[in-house]
């Protein structure tokens, strides 16, 4: 069934309308894991998410539903109308705004820092930890299902990363985090305030994880965010902690890219995920080398 037919069928049932009243306006770009569309139903706009192939290997929808409910009090997410925890289909109210990646992030970095503080300082407690090391092991196991054996380079970089674990991983520093705070997930409203979408990777985690994630497209964005977030000049150790968590993210997404290659998404999407996987190793090496 085509995505458009899925959208029309699900919306008709959930919103109690006729399928002909459901119009697909456009697909939102920015992510590689999901298909997210703007739809119009009787002159009201919504977003409709269809998870990509095998997305359930990386996102637990029951956990996502828990976090969507939990963050309602923060008034940062768009209002979720419907989430099917089995299929991952999600309908939410559309928010009029501009994704931060279409603007100049450095000009709006104070607001981005405010949003992250609102999350990290909220006192909210998830039922679930992000658990970086456990998650990395899980993602590695997904690649093992296809007979993959990690390269000497990967194992060497992972060993170096783990050598810093006791310095920069501290359970006492865990707070409520977004978990995917890259700039494409921030939406800037007309008054320059921001919303933050896509709470699929949320959990209790180190706040530096979110700061590092802000530099997903351009790490200079994370480097610029850190002193604004801290409200002072960072120490060498604080920069090291940022590099550490960004190095982790590159090792993590290396495994995700490998898995996407193995399940045929390079061909399906026209993206060379093996190239992407190797690019993440280049980045891991770079960030680990910056730790002093």
Describe the structure.
- Helix content is 46%, strand content 15%.
- The chain is α+β, with helices and mostly antiparallel strands and 292 residues long.
- It has two domains: 3-94, Phosphorylase Kinase, domain 1 (2-Layer Sandwich); 99-290, Aminoglycoside 3'-phosphotransferase, Chain: A, domain 2 (Alpha-Beta Complex), CATH 3.90.1200.
- The longest helix has 27 residues, at 236-262.
- 33% of the residues are buried.
- The mean pLDDT is 95.
Set out the fold topology.
Layout: H1 3-15, E1 22-28, E2 34-41, E3 44-51, H2 61-70, E4 80-83, E5 90-93, E6 98-99, H3 109-120, H4 132-144, H5 152-163, H6 165-168, E7 175-177, E8 186-188, E9 194-196, E10 203-205, H7 207-213, H8 219-230, H9 236-262, H10 265-269, H11 273-290
Antiparallel strand pairs: 1-2, 2-3, 3-5, 4-5, 6-8, 7-10, 8-9
Helix pairs in contact: 3-8, 4-9, 5-9, 5-11, 7-9, 9-11
Tally the beta strands: 10
Number of domains: 2
For the biggest sheet, the summary is: 5 strands, antiparallel
What order do the helices and strands follow?
HEEEHEEEHHHHEEEEHHHHH
What is the architecture of the largest domain at the second tier of CATH? Alpha-Beta Complex
Read across the widest sheet, the strand sequence of neighbours is: 1-2-3-5-4
How would you briefly describe this protein structure?
The protein has 292 residues and is an alpha+beta fold. 46% of the residues lie in helices and 15% in strands.
């Amino acid at each position: 069934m085509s995505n458009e037919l899925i959208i029309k069928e699900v919306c008709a049932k959930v919103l109690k309308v006729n399928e002909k009243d459901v119009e697909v306006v456009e697909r939102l770009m920015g992510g590689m894991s999901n298909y997210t569309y703007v739809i119009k139903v009787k002159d009201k706009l919504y977003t409709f998410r269809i998870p990509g192939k095998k997305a359930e290997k990386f996102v637990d929808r029951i956990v996502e539903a828990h976090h969507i409910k939990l963050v309602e009090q923060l008034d940062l997410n768009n209002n979720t109308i419907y989430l099917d925890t089995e299929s991952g289909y999600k309908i939410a109210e559309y928010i009029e705004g501009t994704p931060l990646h279409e603007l100049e992030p450095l000009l709006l970095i104070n607001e981005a820092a405010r949003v992250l503080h609102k999350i990290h300082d909220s006192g909210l407690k998830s039922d679930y930890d992000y658990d970086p090391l456990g998650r990395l092991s899980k993602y590695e196991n997904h690649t093992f299902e296809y007979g993959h054996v990690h390269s000497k380079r990967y194992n060497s970089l992972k060993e170096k990363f783990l050598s810093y674990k006791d310095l920069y991983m501290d359970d006492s520093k865990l707070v409520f985090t977004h978990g995917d705070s890259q700039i494409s997930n921030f939406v800037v409203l007309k008054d320059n305030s921001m919303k933050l979408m896509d709470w699929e990777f949320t959990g209790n985690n180190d706040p530096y994880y979110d700061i590092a994630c802000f530099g997903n497209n351009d790490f200079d964005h994370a480097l610029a965010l850190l002193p604004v977030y801290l409200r002072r000049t960072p120490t060498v150790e604080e920069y090291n902690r940022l590099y550490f968590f960004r190095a982790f993210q590159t090792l993590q997404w290396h495994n995700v890219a490998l898995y996407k290659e193995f399940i045929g998404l390079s061909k399906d999407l026209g993206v060379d995920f093996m190239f992407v996987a190797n690019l993440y190793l280049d980045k891991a090496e770079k960030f680990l080398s910056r730790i002093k």
